[in-house]
Amino acid sequence: MTSIEYRLPQVRRVVTELPGPNSAALTQRRKAVIGAGVASSVPVYAADADGGVIVDVDGNSLIDLGSGIAVTSVGASNPAVVAAVQEQVAHFTHTCFMVTPYEGYIAVAEKLAELTPGDFDKRTVLFNSGAEAVENAVKIARHATGRDAVVVFDHAYHGRTNLTMALTAKAMPYKAGFGPFAPEVYRAPMSYPFREGLNKDGSAITGAQAAARAISMIEKQIGADHVAAIVIEPVQGEGGFIVPADGFLPALSEWATANGVVFVADEVQAGFCRTGDWFAVDHEGVVPDLITMAKGIAGGMPLAAVTGRADLIDAVHAGGLGGTYGGNPVACAAALASMSQMDELDLRGRAKHIEEMVTTRLRTLADEFDIIGDVRGRGGMLAIEFVESGSIEPNPAVTKAVSSAMLAEGIIILTCGTYGNVVRLLPSLVISDELLTEALDVLEAVIRKVAA
Ligand SMILES: *Cc1c(COP(=O)(O)O)cnc(C)c1O
C-alpha cells in the first residue's frame, strides 16, 4: 500500500467553543438567506479539509467521522483527485455529453463495467445525484419489463425527489407534507436481525426466512408478474446501518431472476470500498441486474451512475435517459482519479482494518453498557444502536447526547435510524490509525459519561 500523505496536520485541536464565533456569525447570515428546510447537523463551517480532519472557520481542527455522508472516502482534498480536477477544469468544464461527448464519460463507464459484479455485457449511464440514479434505475426497469410495480423495504432511504421519496420509508423529515407520492411503490419487510423476533424454538430468524416473508408479501399483495424491480440497499444507510442476515440478499436476488424482476442494488452509500469490498453485494456474491452509485464515486464531486445488464439499459430508446450535467467532465476526471486511488491506497483493505479497530473497541463497550443494544456494520460503515437499558426500546435521547458531546470535543459524528437511535461511523478510509484511535478514546469517554 502506498503511504498516505496529508496536507493538513492530522490532529484534533479545539481552540474556541464549538461552534466558534465565526461559525456563529455565518449561522446568523445563513438564517437571512437560506431556506429553513436545509438543516446542518453540525453548525460548524468548514474552511479546509484533508485526510481525517476538517478545519473550521475559527481554526478548530475536527476529527471527521462523517466524510460528508460517506462521500470523501479517498479524502476531501486527495492530491490525485485535485490534480485531475485542475487538469480537466483548465480545458473545459462542460460541453454536455448529449451534445458534444468526451472521453472521460466513456472511461468512467469502462471502469464501472470492470468493478461491478457480473460477467455479462454491461452499460452505464451517468447522473448527478444518488436520487437521480435510483430514479433512472426504476425508469430502466419499467421500460425493459413493461411492468409498473416497484418493491422497496422497511427503513429504506433512496432520496428526496418525488419518486425516491415514495421509495424512502421514513416520513419525518423526508416525506412529511410533500405528497402526493408516486404510485405503484410497495414496501416489504426487511431483515433487521437486532429487531427481529425469534422463531418459536428460540433460534434467530435466518436471512432465508426473512426473504421468504418478503417474497410471500410480494406474491400475495402485488403478484410477481406485476413487479418491475426490487430496489434494496445491501447495507441500509439512513435507516440505521442495517445489515440483513446472511442469505437474505441472495434469496431475494434468486427470486427476482426466476420471476423476471429487475434486482436493483442501491449502493449509493455502501459502494466504493466503504464496506471493505468494491460493493456491499460482493460480500455474498450477489450479482444485481442494475447497481446505483454516487456518494463515494468521485472524491466529493457530484456524480452518480447506473451500471448493469446491457439488455435492460439498451432497451431504452435514444434520448430517454440523460440530463444536462449528467457525467460532467470535471466529475468524471475526479471519479477516474478516485477509483485509481482506491486501488493504489488499498482502501478495501483499509476499510477492513477500520472495521477491526472499531468493532473490537465497540464490542467491549457493548459488554459494559446496556444502553448499547447493537454494534454492527461492515468495513468503514459502522454503527452503535442505543436502547433503553435492558430492552430493545430505542433511545434517541442518549444518541443525541453522544453526538452533541462528541462535537463539543471536536469530533464530527452522524446519527441515523428509523428511530433516531443510531450513531454511525463513516470515517474517510484514509484516516490515520492514530486519529481514529483518538476518536474512539473520546467516544468511549463520552459514552461512559452519558451512561452514568
Ligand atoms: C444518499 C443516498 C441516496 C440519495 O443520494 P443523493 O445524492 O443525496 O440524491 C440514495 N440512496 C442511498 C442508499 C443513499 O444513501
Automatic annotation (TrEMBL):
InterPro entries reported in the protein's UniProt record: 4NH2But_aminotransferase_bac, Aminotrans_3, Aminotrans_3_PPA_site, Class-III_PLP-dep_AT, PyrdxlP-dep_Trfase, PyrdxlP-dep_Trfase_major, PyrdxlP-dep_Trfase_small
Database matches in Pfam families: Aminotran_3
Biological source species: Rhodococcoides trifolii
UniProt similarity note: Belongs to the class-III pyridoxal-phosphate-dependent aminotransferase family.
Catalytic activity: 4-aminobutanoate + 2-oxoglutarate = succinate semialdehyde + L-glutamate; (S)-3-amino-2-methylpropanoate + 2-oxoglutarate = 2-methyl-3-oxopropanoate + L-glutamate
UniProt xrefs under SUPFAM superfamilies: PLP-dependent transferases
Pathway membership: Amino-acid degradation; 4-aminobutanoate degradation
NCBIfam families linked to this entry: GABAtrnsam, PRK06058.1
GO molecular function, one term: 4-aminobutyrate:2-oxoglutarate transaminase activity
Protein name, UniProt field: (S)-3-amino-2-methylpropionate transaminase
Single Gene Ontology BP annotation: gamma-aminobutyric acid metabolic process
PANTHER family found in the cross-reference section: AMINOTRANSFERASE CLASS III
UniProt KW keywords: Aminotransferase, Pyridoxal phosphate, Transferase
Domain of life: Bacteria
Record-listed E.C. numbers: 2.6.1.19, 2.6.1.22
Cofactor: pyridoxal 5'-phosphate
Gene3D superfamilies in the cross-refs: Aspartate Aminotransferase, domain 1, Type I PLP-dependent aspartate aminotransferase-like (Major domain)
